[in-house]
Model the fold of this input.
Amino acid sequence: MSIASAQELATFFPEFSIFATGYVHQDAAHQVAVFNDPLMDPFKQKVEDELGVKLLSVMYLGRRNVNLRQSKDELTVMKPEDLAGVNLRMPGSDAWQFLGKALGANPDADGLHRDLHRAFDRFG
Amino acid sequence: LTVRTTRCRRWSTRKFYEVTNQIVLTSHLVDLNYIAFSKAVWDKLTPEQQATVQKAADDAAESGRQAQLKKEEELVSFLREKGLDIYEPDLNAFRDPCAGAICRQLNSRPAGPKACSTRSTRSATDLPGLSRRHGGPDMTSIVKWFLRGAEIVAATMMAAMFLTFILQIAIRYSAKLEWLAEAVSDPRAEPLRLDAGIVPGAVGLDRLLGCGLRGARARSCHLRSLSRRPRQSGAPLVRSWPAAAVCGGLIWSVEPTWSKFFILRLKKTATLNGLFGDWIRMRDIYSIYILFWCVAARYGWRFISAFRHGAPDDRPARTRRGPRNVTGMTRHEFRGLACLLTLFFWRGSARPSPIRSSSPPWSTLALAARTSARRQGLMDGLYQSFILLAVPLFIVAANIMNAGTISDRLLQFCVAAVGRFRGGLGHVNVVASLIFSGMSGSAVADAAGSARSSSR
Done:
């Protein structure tokens, strides 16, 4: 038994990237409803057939929010335009970058972070 | 200014609140993980067992969900206490552009999972609307060449350091053995030393490089698969010249080796009596060199087959050997060449000045055993780069520590000790490095060991 994220599955099946897209799920209960809906059956079936993995249930990881270095006096965000020009550090994959752009910000692909991981992976 | 998006649960443990001033509750992604189960195992279970497993998964997800929701509420008040501004933006304004973008994404491709099922290997990057950012092609290739070049340099340096280390050990212990000192100082044994130096060196280094570069190679293979272009076929001679070089060198050493055998055949009394008694004959020991002829035969066969069937890369069987790397050779050929180059270029580093400048590396072994004064000089030369010698071993040691979870435990200890101070991550890093350096004494081992854990 293991856990798999929608982003991981999206690298095999592009259609899974819809579950990693912003504002698709509304809350934890909605996630469960989507997972148990007949709409999900072809998705599950495909993962079973092609990866040999059965998806049993959906876990709630929490809501992602934006946290800012600026104080509220410097920058108050009420609408996407307020985030224009703000560098948003997000993972490098395209699904994440797309999410950052959709928020109205300027997503940054974690450059330093990624290189560090690569460097350490090289020794391991 | 750098900001990031975070799930709430990391807030208390990672102390992000120390470096941030406000949180905008965009709730832009309700994040999820799926509980996954092997289908093969699932099919073996009875229906009752399946139901039990399914229920366990559902229950676990549910209890985690409730705990997470509860924690989110607690965290908001906790962070407000810490002086952060937490507020909700105009969520409708956020939802609209996101929804719009999703619609664009969906409309630009056929809807539904079935439409995509024909190309299951496509990655998410192929989605229209999520197109990859393209740099200039020139820049990409330059960067690629730099990366590959760095890999090659690193590989060569690693090989050189390993070899020097091994040689140092060999000199250290062989110098104590009188019989070996006599054997290598015998002028008739000169060609044999060539064998003893170059062949095990080449074969051993081939293995070592193979182990050390596995990760890097996998990655560069991946890079290559992204930018695959049609392979050019070249003349077989050009393509297989490293094999020919190895083969030629080995064949060249057959004659001197054989003459050594001849001498030993005459000197039937030559035994290791000084060490183990006279029942071990030198001739029997030296017969191990027959193995090296097999290496010569293998490379020779490859060279011949390159002539008969064309360049190796043109044959389909060759694809399973892996793609060629930047030098146009397969990795086997490249590794062989790297070994040879290392053996030839290394010699300048540890050689004391009295030795004649044209002496090849293997002669240092002989000279070291021959005169104690020169041996002393050689050892000094080696010890001056002692730190360098130990670098690969430190990395190995750090990897062992990682595997044995020492570095993780160390980090946990430091989190418990100093993690509560302001800027805890930095303090933890410093103290972990302090303790780690007490164990290893090496910055490199530190980077490969504790830094690797803390970066996770």
Observations:
- The mean pLDDT of chain A is 78.
- The CA atoms of residues 48 and 54 of chain A lie 5 Å apart.
- The first strand of chain A starts at residue 2 and ends at 5.
